[in-house]
Records
---
Amino acid sequence: MSSTILNKVPVPTRWRLAIKTLPFITVIIFLKFCVHSYGYEFLTLNSLFTAIISANIFLIGFLISGTLVDYKESEKLPGDLSSSLEAMADEGIIIWKNKKSQESKDYLLKISQFNKALIDWFYKKEHTDTLMEKLRSFNEDFLAFENQTQANFIVRMKQEQNSIRKMINRIHTIRETSFLGTGYAIAEIITFILVIGLIFIKMDPFYESIFFISFVSFILIYMIYFIKDLDNPFGYTEEDSLVENVSLKPLLDSQKRLETYYQEK
């Protein structure tokens, strides 16, 4: 019952990773108390141990810099997708104003529906293959426009279609693959070993050792979570439970505009 209530309590986004890390810190502090109480602290703090901590922080910094490049690129993709879809819609509006054809009206409806399918795809309610097939189906509309518009208009629509296809493939790659999985593994192994070492290290006075162990463990574990979160900027579903996601506002705004374009016809 209590866990259900906690799950319903809204947590500010910026604190979710910290709260996710706290249970590990609680366990580490408990183990440190047990080890200290039974006199199992057989390690001593030396320069080699601090050097390993520095090396691990350097490795984590390297992983963050690598994932940050993909994240900064990913921030642009929803806006670029929105721009390409509305550019395709502009050509359809021009054809409608010129020919008042049913094909152009159906085309605008299809773009609005595709924008909605694209948003669903980000939330994993739509498969990539299905989305690609819907994108490919615009070829039928371009064929219907051959007698209604100039060839260069259709070429522009095809170019935007190809740009959308490239961006979908790029997003799919970022979402489904990890940056340097072996790098994550070694960072996790070193962090685990360091935490175990901190538990068995003897430091006096004891309350200072609790402070330093808690602080160092929190930083290391938090940064591991942060890297994994940053590695997939498109984790919008509950099963992903990620925090640092890029905004889909450009696509949500374009959805409203595209629906307006169609309703005005």
---
Amino acid sequence: MNQFPEILRIELGKYVENFVKYLTANYSHFFDMMKSGILWFLLNVEKFLQWIPWWLVIAGVFLAGWRVKKQLSSGIVYSSMLFLVGAFGLWQLMMSTLAVVLTSVVISLLIGIPTGILMAYSEKIETFMKPVLDAMQTMPSFVYLIPASMLFGLGKVPGVFATTIYAVPPVIRLTNLAIRNVSKEMVEAAHSFGSSSWQTLIKVELPQAMPTIMTGVNQTTMMAMAMVVVASMIGAKGLGAEVMIAINRIDIAKGTEAGLAIVVIAIIIDRLTQGIAERFKIPE
């Protein structure tokens, strides 16, 4: 009596497993094409980042910190932190990690912003998407590695896929919230002057919603950074792989340097994207 009846057990996991196997068996060409496209974009982003001289990257971060935060000290601090990563001997690995993060963020934005707009315009879509987003945000990040590796094998592409699924919910939620919070009077005024729904969206709603949307971009980027260590378990090279190696070898020195490098990148991206979001705020 103290155990749940075996006859009432629902083996949902098997249905999910069979579904993933069905996809790999019948739509392998589609996933191969998707893998090729993502890999092409990822490799070109990584090649570009590796091509930029280290001193130019540090100078760019200095200028960005200075101009975005409007403080010279911010530029000095951010560029010094980035210089520290290079001094650790992790510059190339940092660029590989940034390539994965940037690719995941771009895909997340291409999916998330249109989805958030659709949710704002349709109650039915919002009702359907809310529990889906709840599940995506509460699901342990390691779980995403299973379908990613089954659909795309091992390497950087499944790492991007898993990172995208993990990181996309914030930008969807905040885009939906931002569009819904746009003043109804402004929307009605645009319609009264003959603007179509598309013109109203582009010229009224999106500019008004941009600060909140940029907050979503910030949160999505931070979640993508948080996923880089987990994604290294299925072959996504970079700083995350260094952390995993350090854990396996109990190498405190390597783990400390790689961990600090990830923290440095996260802090710089977070502060810069927050500064950009503040730029979009409309003065009251």
